[in-house]
Amino acid sequence: MHPMGDVWQWLGMSGDALGTSGVARRTLLYCYAVAVAMVGAINAINVITTHHEQPQYGLAAPILWEGSSGLAFILFLWIPWVACRIAPLRVRPRWKLLIHVPAMLIFSLAHVTGFIGLRKLVYWFGGAHYEFGAFLPHFGYELAKDAISYAIFAAAAALVEHLLRQLSLIETPGQTLTFDIRDGSRLTRVRLDQVLAIASAGNYVEFVLKDQRKLLMRSPLSTLESELGPRGFLRTHRSWLVNAGQMTALKPEGSGDYTVELGSVTAPLSRRFPAALAKLRGGCGS
């Protein structure tokens, strides 16, 4: 696969870096649609307010001011989107979330310089001059608003993506669900009923398949627990998820710990996960 194609796929423009094809792309589209609607509504309210409180400016000036700000905001939303793909809110370790600090600053700077440029251009065409004023004080004011908008966008993107992933895991009658495992530029599509267990391996997870293959994918185990939990995968250990439907035996090891046998594969079941033990004993996957 072409390296640029890998970048687009990872960012959610073609498939999805985390394994469920199309989810990230739909998340981006939905978030952009909501952002456009909200920005349009807020700008309309601001135009009405400005026209009411400062009628000497007429309608054209407030429309230009708000419209240029809204357009620049939408044009540069790709900055928080890329940052959210690099460090989603669920990322581990948590220090990676610090990337959102420079990303937010860059986004705000792009937004402010963007709408200033647009306003100056329109004023110039009209034979006038636009003056923004002292940059730093005004930028501080805009930065505070942009920081709130950035946080709302990041939270909305995380929520929408989570909901879409849950919807993608709803089983269609008569259809076997598949999962896309990405290892670098290689993507392997497997049936979920062929996955016995998933083990944490540093920054990666390792899928253990019935045919004895072991495939790696860069992803937190907690992300896969959230995605595949509705499909019968149970967290039995801080480093293990097992496909409950593939369990063949449950062997006590003493002190409340167990070993889960899944054909030729075994996985630990820690006493710290009593809910998983209860489900396995109750025939969760049968």
Structure in words:
There is one protein chain. The chain has 286 residues and is α+β, with helices and mostly antiparallel strands. The protein has two domains: 3-168, no CATH class; 179-281, LytTr DNA-binding domain (OB fold (Dihydrolipoamide Acetyltransferase, E2P), Beta Barrel), CATH 2.40.50. The chain contains eight helices and ten strands. A five-stranded antiparallel beta sheet has the order 5-4-3-7-6, with helices on one face. The radius of gyration is 25 Å and the shape is elongated. The model is unreliable at 1-21 and 171-175 (pLDDT under 50).
Radius of gyration, Cα only, in angstroms?
25 Å
Task: Estimate the global geometry from the Cα principal axes.
Answer: elongated
Helix/strand/pairing category: alpha+beta
Poorly predicted segments: 1-21, 171-175
Distance between the termini: 40 Å
Strand order of the largest sheet: 5-4-3-7-6
What order do the SSEs take from the amino end to the carboxyl end, as H and E? HHHHHHEEEEEHEEEEEH
Q: Could you report the average pLDDT, rounded to the nearest whole number? A: 85
Write down the domain tally.
Answer: 2
Question: Can I get a quick summary?
Answer:
This protein is 49% helix and 20% strand.
Task: Produce the secondary structure layout.
Elements: H1 3-10, H2 23-53, H3 60-75, H4 78-86, H5 100-125, H6 135-168, E1 178-183, E2 186-191, E3 195-201, E4 204-209, E5 214-218, H7 221-228, E6 233-237, E7 240-243, E8 249-254, E9 257-262, E10 265-269, H8 274-281
Question: What labels would you give this structure?
Answer:
10 strands; elongated; 2 domains; 49% helix; 286 residues; 8 helices; alpha+beta; five-stranded antiparallel sheet
